[in-house]
Automatic annotation (TrEMBL):
This is Polar amino acid transport system ATP-binding protein. GO terms for cellular component: plasma membrane. The keyword Ubl conjugation does not apply. Keywords: Amino-acid transport, ATP-binding, Cell membrane, Membrane, Nucleotide-binding, Transport. It is found in: Cell membrane. It comes from the Bacteria. GO terms for molecular function: ABC-type amino acid transporter activity; ATP binding; ATP hydrolysis activity. It is a peripheral membrane protein. It holds the Pfam family ABC_tran. Its main location: membrane. Belongs to the ABC transporter superfamily.
Length: 276
């Protein structure tokens, strides 16, 4: 890999991701407003908040899919978006950004598997071509990962032949194949029929139990309450709540969070509740 981007493993319990005073504008609108937070190694961090509050934008900043206007994000010892040289910050080239993204998995609502490749080829592609893993080893590892997400019988299927839940699980296997230090989930279950949500959440739960560092943007409050170590709430681009899942769900500090949670945990009012 030619691009000078490294993501060394952080010490257990230390901050793997540090977000410091990040602001971002779209046109004149400030969509992230001085956001600061840490994600520790091995932590499951959920980001919640109303529609349009900036959750996806924050995730895209973490993954260098989009830039930000001020502040800093550090993943491991890599300053996202910039290389420091002679005391100056040089913006990444597209190639550097792509190299970084390959080690920070993103699984989003809209699965983007290669439609003309089989499931196993989708999982093999990145390790073989980006990490330079020998073909046989990449295939063996892909088979292991597909077993882990319950898709051992789908190696030779094409994405179109899979259900939405199976496609999401294949996308998770593909992200894991890059041996990421962190996986970001952007509403990974929100496009799925309720009966398929559970199978994807089960895989996320299993990864959490294995100690994978994950940042999840989710509208599934019950799942967030169950799986998250820490929860952050965004409201109009501002981080208004940041605490352990227990603290945020049982005793939120802000009235706005309490109001948001009560409307989303109300049995008639949330998808999570409806599909529970
Ligand atoms: N590419 C873009 N160009 C202009 N505005 C954008 C763009 N992407 C997002 N926005 C705006 O930024 C704000 C935050 O959007 P974002 O998608 O991050 O919110 P969100 O909290 O993830 O919402 P949702 O829960 O509905 O997915 C919104 O007002 C949105 O319209």
């Amino acid at each position: 890999m030619a691009a000078p981007v490294s993501l060394p493993a952080a010490q257990e319990g230390s901050a793997l991701i540090r977000v410091r005073s990040v602001s971002k504008f779209y046109g004149g609108a400030k969509v992230l407003d001085e956001v600061s937070m840490d994600v520790r190694s091995g932590e499951v961090r959920c980001i919640i908040g109303p529609s349009g509050s900036g959750k996806s934008t924050l995730l895209r900043c973490l993954n260098a899919l989009t830039g930000f206007d001020s502040g800093a994000i550090v993943v491991g010892d890599t300053r996202v978006g910039y290389t420091e040289r002679d005391g100056r910050l040089l913006p990444w080239t597209p190639r550097q950004a792509a190299a970084f993204r390959s080690r920070v998995g993103l699984v989003s609502q809209h699965v983007n598997l290669f439609s003309h490749r089989t499931v196993i080829e989708n999982v093999i592609e990145g390790p073989k071509h980006i990490l330079g893993v020998p073909a046989r080893e990449a295939r063996e590892r892909a088979a292991e990962l597909l077993a882990r997400v319950g898709l051992s019988d789908k190696h030779d299927s094409y994405p179109i032949q899979l259900s939405g839940g199976q496609q999401q699980r294949a996308a998770i296997a593909r992200a894991l194949a890059m041996q990421p230090h962190v996986i970001l989930f952007d509403e990974a279950t929100s496009a799925l029929d309720p009966e398929l949500v559970g199978e994807v959440l089960a895989v996320i739960r299993q990864l959490a139990a294995e100690g994978m560092t994950m940042v999840l943007v989710t509208h599934e409050m019950r799942f967030a309450a169950e799986v998250a170590d820490r929860v952050a709430m965004l409201d109009r681009g501002r981080l208004i709540e940041d605490g352990t899942a227990r603290q945020v769900f049982s005793a939120p500090r802000s009235a706005r969070t309490a109001e948001f949670l009560s409307s989303h945990l109300d049995p008639g009012g949330s998808r999570a509740a409806r599909s529970a």
